[in-house]
Design brief:
Length: 260
């Protein structure tokens, strides 16, 4: 039974183990100093208070051992306890820095829910995030991209996940199962057919995680619209078709085209 307890204890995080050890030291040394110098430390709580103040190197001086044995106990507490306290603060600092680095480089999983996942980083995504920043949805955006080296500094609320959106591990990091909606943009660094195939594969991967989640997908070629719909996209944005239509309307509008 004791072996099982030790096994579970050492499987815990370093921070957890440090906290338990420090608390045990405070209780043990606090109890000992109370029994050794009961007049100076009337209660066990006073002893524990002294232990915490001592190993944290604060040293208020309100409780000080007067006997030789008490001072030897204090020296042992300082030599043993300060080492654990130092490790405790170093561990907290390391965890904070590690978490911040993971947040910037896109390796930190998203723990929220009811968020909007945007796949792909390009000029349209940038403009879309700027629009979201003006709304109440700004705090619920997760961006997935495998080309970015670090989180874009457009908004403090955008959570960046670096990775291939067709991979299950990437979608799990974006907590896709708890998302409100997914928006897939076309990869502008690839040819139209290749970009559309990647978008369709992403749709299938997302549906594999949650078949009920609404998906809006950008498709460049009209030939792949039906395939995207069959894959599970509820809404299709045909960018090239929209741009062509807009150019035609501008060309033949009264303001944009004058026949001479």
């Amino acid at each position: 039974m004791f072996d099982s307890f030790l096994f579970r204890f050492f499987r815990r995080s370093v921070l957890y183990r440090l906290i338990v050890i420090i608390l045990l030291l405070c209780v043990i040394f606090g109890g000992l100093i109370h029994f050794l110098e009961e007049e100076t430390f009337p209660t066990v709580f006073d002893g524990i208070w002294w232990s915490i103040v001592t190993i944290s190197t604060i040293g208020f001086g309100d409780y000080v051992p007067h006997t030789v044995v008490g001072r030897i106990l204090a020296m042992l507490l300082i030599l043993i306890g300060t080492g654990f306290i130092t490790n405790y603060f170093v561990t907290i600092a390391r965890m904070a820095v590690s978490r911040e680095n993971a947040y910037v480089d896109g390796s930190l999983p998203y723990r929220g829910s009811d968020h909007i996942v945007i796949v792909g980083w390009n000029e349209r995504t940038k403009q879309l995030l700027e629009l979201f920043a003006q709304s109440h949805l700004a705090k619920h955006i997760v961006l997935i991209d495998e080309t970015l080296e670090e989180r874009p500094m457009l908004s403090a609320y955008v959570h960046f996940v670096k990775g291939n959106p067709t991979h299950e591990s990437t979608l799990i990091k974006a907590n896709i199962a708890e998302a409100r909606e997914v928006m897939i943009t076309a990869n502008q660094h690839k040819a139209e057919n290749e970009a559309d195939m990647q978008a369709i594969l992403t749709i299938l991967a997302v549906k594999g995680q949650d078949r009920h989640i609404p998906i809006t997908a950008e498709i460049l070629s009209s030939l792949h619209v039906k395939s995207a719909e069959h894959a599970g996209a509820g809404k299709i944005v045909e960018t090239n078709k929209m741009i062509s239509q807009h150019m035609y309307e501008q060309l033949f509008s009264k303001e944009g085209f004058v026949r001479k």
